[in-house]
Amino acid sequence: MSAHTQNVSVSPFTLSQTDQIPFFFCAIPYHLIDNDIFPQLKGNHIKLLLVIDRYRNLKLKQKKFDHLLLSGWTIPVSQQVLADRCGVKRPTINNLVEELIGFGLLEKQLDDKSGRYRYRLTAYKVTSEEVKKMRYQHEMATEETMGAQEIKHLQEEVEALKERIEADIQPQENEGLVEVNPVCQGIEQGGVKSSDTLIDKLKDSVITSDD
User: Fold this and answer.
1) For 101, which of 92, 95, 134, 184 is 20 to 30 Å away at the CA?
2) Would you call 47 helix, strand, or coil by DSSP?
3) Which fold has domain 23-126?
4) Mapping DSSP to helix (H, G, I), strand (E, B) and coil, where does residue 77 land?
5) Tell me: the pLDDT tens digits for 39-51?
6) Domain locations in the chain?
7) What is the pLDDT of residue 108?
């Protein structure tokens, strides 16, 4: 039985900002993975981090730099539940929690009402400056992607218009060479320029040659 694969670049399905992926994820934030301590973690540390993230309270938010972010705090959860999820004994969970806190990767907070602890991966504790930096990096990455796509699209338009122009130009008698269209020559020498200016000039050339 062969595995079914799909090329995501040609997928007909897209998600709008209002769409929701129909399942939840437990994930470790990049900030935590980039931490110098991360390579020192053991398998049970990783399991516990993922299980803790499983109980993250999606309703709790924090506002940073006009952005509303997940706070990262879990609902109150007992260590026995964490132990069962990780497949270890409760004392082991207690040790793992204290080790992760010692590494600076985890916080805990006692919930007076339930008598249980809330937990939070410290990677969720971000400053306004970090949010600004992340937003800037995202915007730059988006601009670079859009820029590359736009350039490729313009180059395709240029090539198509060049072919039309060359097809419309007929050499006259006793003329051994066809003069290169100055607009196309400028494109080849100067590279892709403003899309509006470029397309207007090429369209003018096509109209002139048709006349």
Assistant:
1) 134
2) helix
3) Arc Repressor Mutant, subunit A (1.10.10)
4) strand
5) 999 999 999 999 9
6) 23-126, 131-169+179-210
7) 95
Neighbours of 25 (CB within 10 A): 8
Beta strands, E only, the chain: 61-64, 67-70, 106-110, 117-121
List beta partners, residue 67. Answer: 64
Q: Tokens 């039985």 — which residue?
A: 1
How many angstroms separate the CA atoms of 103 and 35, rounded?
10
Centroid of chain to Cα 99: 32
The tally of CA atoms less than 13 A away on the side-chain side of residue 166 is: 10
Taking the model in full, what pTM does it have?
0.53
Q: What would the pLDDT profile of 10-54 be if each residue is shown by its tens digit?
A: 555 566 667 666 677 888 888 888 889 999 999 999 999 999 999
Which amino acid is it at 152? K
Residue 140 tokens, joined: 């730059």
